[in-house]
Amino acid sequence: MQEKIDKYTAEIKAFAATKADELEAFRIKFLGTKGIIKDLFDQFKTVGPEEKRTFGKVLNQFKQLAEEKYSELKEASANTADTATADIDKTLPGDGFELGSRHPLTLVRNEIIDVFKRLGFVVAEGPEIEDDWHNFSALNFPEEHPARDMQDTFFIKKNSGTDDIALRTHTSSVQVRMMENGKPPFRAIMPGRVYRNEAISARAHCFFHQVEGLYVDENVSFADLKQTLYHFVQELYGEGTKVRFRPSYFPFTEPSAEMDVSCTICKGSGCNMCKYSGWVEILGCGMVDPNVLENCGIDSKKYTGFAFGMGIERITNLKYVIRDLRLFSENDVRFLKQFQSEII
Ligand code: 2U9
Q1: What sign has the CA pseudo-torsion 102, 106, 112, 113?
Q2: Per the CATH hierarchy, to which homologous superfamily does domain 104-342 belong?
Q3: How is the cofactor bound, in the record's words (predicted)?
Q4: How far is residue 107 CA from its own chain's centroid?
């Protein structure tokens, strides 16, 4: 046993590893679970009590020598160039990794928000699960309106009508909550997800995203509405984009209108995006119906307001020429990575 220890002691003292794999081989050979030191300690158990006294000390010193050598070399290799990677050219560029990108709907929603923020609008949010009052009744929807039908709305709890609970069909419920809980003036936009009971196709989905807006104060006029939305279009689609307003009907606005913009793809000369008309409808708007103001606790003799609503998908389709709504919710990275945002 002494002979073996002398031989290994000389080997350890002479050992000088330059590479990480040599050092690891040293560790396994001497200090590993099936290594020489473990083997010597196993043999030690079988020697007589006389020998135990002398060899115990020798064996412990030997073990200490191996451990010290190992940690000394390990430390040296960490302090100097990494022995395992000594032959790697560290001046070469590293492997790149792909950054994610913002969803196109997020990019466009943020752009819309930025334009209105610059005009002094604040951003307001509300629940996606709504009661009948905030989603329909306060907004002047008559009892028999088709939007209140199971075919159009996802009901969570269908009771007597006024107690119904549903997934909101528009973000207008946020305006109602805002007016109920505050005092005019209100100048806010409401971005959010809304739900409609529709079969999924290239042109329709059971959920989509809206930005609605509300401006209530004394003397707010239809001229204010037109100028605000005209400015919004210039900012979003560029100077020179034309707008036109067509009369329309919504239960919650009177008068109501739909707004078209000159086709941003063909600049009005006609293409299949605008169905060769030169115009594309992008939003609905109008003066808030006095009944709605009163329902929300606002004095309609003192205050007037305008409101508008748009589908973010529609605005995005026009901006990026996307023809299938389903692309927005499939999370196919080949689609998503085409939209690079400046802020990651
Ligand atoms: C209150 C009062 C008035 C919000 C409005 C529209 C017109 C509109 C549609 C556009 C496409 C919904 O996403 S869409 O399907 N919206 O046409 N929305 S005025 O009017 C309000 C809202 C709340 C208290």
Answers
A1: negative
A2: Bira Bifunctional Protein; Domain 2 (3.30.930.10)
A3: Binds 2 magnesium ions per tetramer.
A4: 10
Per the confidence metrics, is the pTM higher than 0.85?
no
The residue contributing the CA closest to ligand 1 atom 21 is 307
Return the best residue to mutate from 187, 308, 316 for the ligand 1 pocket (most ligand atoms within 8 A of CB): 308
Regarding the beta carbon of 315 and ligand 1, being less than 6 Å apart is answered no
- Residue 250's contacts (CB-CB under 8 Å, 6 or more residues apart) are 256, 284, 286
Indicate if ligand 1 lies below 6 Å from the C-beta of 311. Answer: yes
Whose tokens are 């269908």? That residue is 158
SS3 41: helix
Helix residue ranges, H only, 15-103: 20-26, 36-44, 49-79
Whole-angstrom Cα distance, residue 155 to residue 147?
A: 11
pLDDT tens-digit profile, the chain (344 residues):
788 889 999 999 999 877 888 899 999 999 999 999 999 999 888 888 888 888 888 899 999 999 999 999 888 877 765 555 567 888 888 888 777 889 999 999 999 999 999 999 999 999 999 999 999 999 999 888 888 887 889 999 887 767 889 999 999 999 999 999 999 999 999 999 999 999 999 999 999 999 999 999 999 999 999 999 999 999 999 999 999 999 999 999 999 999 999 998 888 888 888 899 999 999 999 999 999 999 999 999 999 999 999 999 999 999 898 989 999 999 999 999 888 755 54
| Amino acid code (one letter) for 210 | Q
DSSP states of 191-217: EEEEE------SS--SEEEEEEEEEEE
- Best substitution site from 193, 222, 252 to test ligand 1's pocket, by max atoms within 8 Å of Cβ? 252
Q: What angle do CA 302, 304, 306 make, to 5 degrees?
A: 170
